[in-house]
Amino acid sequence: MKIATYNVNGINARLPVLLRWLETTAPDVVCLQELKAPTEKIPEQAIADIGYQGIWQGQKSWNGVAILTRNLEIQEVSRTLPGDEEDTQSRYLEAVVNNIHIGCLYLPNGNPAPGPKFDYKLRWFERFNTHAAALLALNKPVVLTGDFNVIPTEQDVYRPERWLEDALFRPESRSAFKILVDQGWTDALRKLYPNEPIYTFWDYFRNAYERNAGLRIDHFLLSPHLDSSLLAAGVDSDVRGWEKTSDHAPVWIELAD
């Protein structure tokens, strides 16, 4: 079973890229972030035409998440992250596919930091960690994936000294991610590639992709039930080089049945 995550950075603007990638790689489950479109503007038919169904949580101009499946039933669990009924930002979607709970998230960026946006990021992160602990307590297979907007370690960023004051790399963000992982989650890419530079995002500026000056901010966390099922993982970094593409690349894992 192949599961992928992709911050598309505008699903309508990047639709040709998304469809080309889906047809080329054919993952069984796809989590999308930063749709930047209200639900009624999601190009569902174009995606259905290549064999995918899904559940969507759009938002006009900003945010938005989706979970797509190919030849697999999808059972929606939740469209919001628990803990704040006043939070209307579309950043979390949860479903069960093939007996696996899948949480698709778009964690707040938090810049500029310090400031209100960073405070919101940390509050959201705390809520997410609480929910993640509750998912572990279900004692079932769970995958948490998406754009976490966190650079976990210096190994995960080109020239880390340039990111010290950025919300993605500030100590508070890294600490929150470590608290999450230490609950008992497996960082899938680091399990298979513990010592290699792995990037999932390259800025549009300063030829970052061409210089491989990237960040690893799109992650897969696996519950203990799935740790031994992990067969492979990777980043489709070539997609970042396509015309009119997102500044993120798709990330994927393969699990044994």
UniProtKB/TrEMBL annotation:
Site (Interaction with DNA substrate): 248
EC supergroup of this enzyme: hydrolase
Keyword DNA damage: no
Record key words, sorted: Hydrolase, Magnesium, Manganese, Metal-binding
Cofactor note as given: Probably binds two magnesium or manganese ions per subunit.
Domain Endonuclease/exonuclease/phosphatase intervals: 4-248
Any GO BP: DNA repair
Positions contributing to Mg(2+) binding: 7, 34, 147, 149, 247-248
Pfam families linked: Exo_endo_phos
One MF annotation (Gene Ontology) recorded for this entry: double-stranded DNA 3'-5' DNA exonuclease activity
Coiled coil stretches, renumbered: none
Site (Transition state stabilizer): 149
Family: Belongs to the DNA repair enzymes AP/ExoA family.
Identification of the protein by name: Exodeoxyribonuclease III
Source organism per UniProt: Adhaeribacter radiodurans
